[in-house]
Fold:
Amino acid sequence: MTQIDMPTLFFAAIFTNNILLTNFLGLCPYIAISKNINSAAGLGVAVIFVMTCTAALNHLIYYQVLVPLHLEHFQFIIFIVVIAAFVQVVEMTIDRYFPALYQVLGIFLPLITVNCAILGASLFMIIRDYTLLQSMGYGAGSGTGWLLAITLVGAIREKIQKTGKLPKGLEGPGITLIITGLLSLAFTAFSGLIKIQ
Amino acid sequence: MARTENIAAVFKRGFINENPIMRHVLGICSTLAATNLVANTLVMSAGLVFALSMSCLTVSILRSITPMRIRMMVQTLIIASYVIIVDIIIKAYLPDISEALGPYVGLIITNCIVMGRCEAYARSNPPMPSFLDGLAVGLGYTAVLLIIAIFRESLGFGTIMGYRVMPEGFTTWTVMVMAPGAFFMLGIFVWIVRTYFPQTYEENKGGEKS
Structure:
């Protein structure tokens, strides 16, 4: 695993191993928020930031604290606490020092604690033995991939709402899932370019 | 008599009326990944049902001494503890499936359903109904996932639980076991449910968050 350098991993996480389209992570906020492209993009940016930082933090904590103490089984609790605490700190910091940014990102931050993609990225990084630098690349790449997927779907849904007429049962989550399936099919075209499994 | 009716009502509500997938399309994140094989789905769902019902029970027992302001954190920690138990058990007794599921067992923690039931029901109800509520919602969720898994495995591999069900010359639909198949299946399922049972989501038009 160590032979993959960080930029390669970054692109692999966006295209060949997109965390949403191939690993199904982060679907709940994805379906709920993708009605409109602006909020989709805002949430995506917040996810990139939090994912990169928590992947690095969790990596440090796992290898510097949990492994020496043989507490690997507690990784779930520790990771989720780190993510929750980090999101809280970021929210307070932004609110205090960058009120303009808070206007844009503030409402999305609490949603991120329960985004499975964030915890998922941390768990993948442990399972695949990434180094600190690789973890950050993977975190940033997964976040970017998630942003890409949610913005694409947000844009398509906006267009459909303006022009298309759908059967009643298909509106909302139904059509979103089918569009996601098509997107995911398109992304399988990238598979095989870079292998990171 | 009244008591048995009560239990049946809790079950029916959790299993059908408030079925997390049919009603809210929630909590699909981590478990959709396990639906390519029926066996994986069963293990994953069993883990989820255990974690969900026990978390509801614990949250409900502790509900009077949990301070309001930190209740989310307390709930998360309770859920995480049970998920660790599930993870250790699966690792110890079913190492192959544990390998296949990878990080998805751990991701039960962030499954919106668990937190959702704790927050919506267990927080304000006595322990026994909360436990049953968790059980019913978990089983409803399992049923939906099994339907999806049965379609995916039989079309994608031609087997169910490893046994052949399709005739010999059947061309397998490889797309079904890959990621797009899961999205298509769930999309079609949601479509069918919402066409034939529109009442299950009527009151739920507003912005539902995860």
Residues 132-163 of chain A form the longest helix (32 residues). The two ends of chain A are 9 Å apart (CA to CA). The mean pLDDT of chain A is 83.
